[in-house]
Amino acid sequence: MLRRAGRDRAGRFLVEGAQAVREALRFAHVHELFVTEAAVDRHPDLMVEASATRISVVTDRAAAALSDTVTPQGILAVCDLLDVPVARALDGSPRLVAVCAGVADPGNAGTIVRVADAAGADAVLFAGDTVDPHNGKAVRASTGSVFHLPLARDRDAAAVLDACHAAGLTVLVADGHGELDLHDPAAAPVLAGPVAWVFGGEAHGVPAAVAQAADHRVRVPIHGRAESLNLATAAAICLYASVAARTR
Predict the structure, then answer these.
(1) Of 144, 147, 136, which is closest to residue 1 (Cα–Cα)?
(2) How far apart are CA 142 and CA 23, in angstroms?
(3) How far is the C-alpha of 187 from the C-alpha of 185, rounded, in Å?
(4) Domain 4-80 is in which class?
(5) In the chain, helix, strand, coil percent, each to 5?
(6) Which residues contact 158 (CB under 8 A, 6 or more apart)?
(7) What are the tens digits of pLDDT across the range 229-239?
(8) Can you give the pTM of this predicted structure?
(9) What is the CATH number of domain 86-247?
(10) If DSSP codes are grouped into helix, strand and coil, which group holds residue 80?
(11) Segment 80-90, tens digit of pLDDT
(12) E-assigned strands of the chain?
């Protein structure tokens, strides 16, 4: 379950770390908990929360074998995969959705899930050739937010955008060279409506075909001499801009 193919075959994934495991126990189906004796001593509250779950005490060596971190925390949960079909994730007239398109770095993907959760987004979609949200680093970077809102993934990026349009969402691509300035007054009515924000990889941005299929390509203005914003920062600015536009 440390690799995507194994996770998909098993229909399960590993969650590591006290915070992520705590959220898994509260919001997901946990099949089993693996903990070291030291972790049991460090997290008695989690042991209480997991009292109805099968708990296996393992050696430090066994915990390290299950972990994909340099410094294992000694507490891991086995959970069912979280993703649902795109149509289900978009059910119920969503107002704010984040789409990862071509995001290869799991840390960036997990952070976008965390930001989307904080901004009150209705779902996060993973479109095209994008990292698996169940990747261990992505789950840790989300600090448990993967358990808080619907996740969906589809290799067909065009189908994901079509589904967003069908759900009544205006599709906005975050693009440093976009024709619409995020702070332009003309952007306000667009941002205030139901939108799906599309974020691409840090190095190459959103795939060209996806950018062309969007309703608008929106740029975050750079006022200083920074070459660009990192992906997570740009996602936070864009998602919260939509929240702010709705509350004016």
Answers:
(1) 136
(2) 11
(3) 5
(4) alpha beta
(5) 40, 20, 35
(6) 209, 210, 213
(7) 899 999 999 99
(8) 0.93
(9) 3.40.1280.10
(10) strand
(11) 999 999 999 99
(12) 12-16, 30-35, 54-57, 75-80, 96-101, 123-127, 151-154, 170-174, 180-181, 195-199, 216-219
